[in-house]
Design goal:
Length: 118
């Protein structure tokens, strides 16, 4: 699932993304992806589907840049279905105000991604 989500988003947006932390020197408009939680259906005779809560933090030098990045991510991932992913659905968004908010603005998106183990 991680590789599929990354590949989908990397192909869909024009700014850097990473699963986890981005390297030093990355542009101000960017996004990083991480799994917040994951559960699996319990089945006796087969592997059940897995549902992961995937967060994508979108950054920008201005709030408008962060909004633009979040809209691009949401457009690419919401209602996506393909490969091992049975469905990815937008769950919610939140704005962050960190101590360093003057440096970068951040919008966090949460998606529920249901997939089958490969």
């Amino acid at each position: 699932m991680e590789e599929e989500v990354y590949a989908l988003l990397d192909a869909a947006v024009s700014f850097p993304i990473a699963w986890g932390a981005l390297p030093e020197g990355t542009g101000k408009q960017r996004a990083h992806i991480y799994r917040a939680s994951e559960t699996q259906e319990q089945m006796i005779d087969t592997a059940g589907l897995i549902t992961a809560r995937v967060n994508v933090d979108c950054y920008g030098e201005s709030y408008a840049d962060a909004v633009t990045a979040s809209r691009a991510i949401r457009s690419a991932l919401n209602r996506y279905q393909g490969g091992s992913i049975r469905g990815a659905f937008f769950e919610g968004a939140r704005d962050f105000t960190d101590d360093d908010a003057g440096l970068l603005h951040r919008i966090g998106l949460t998606f529920l991604v249901t997939y089958a183990e490969t």
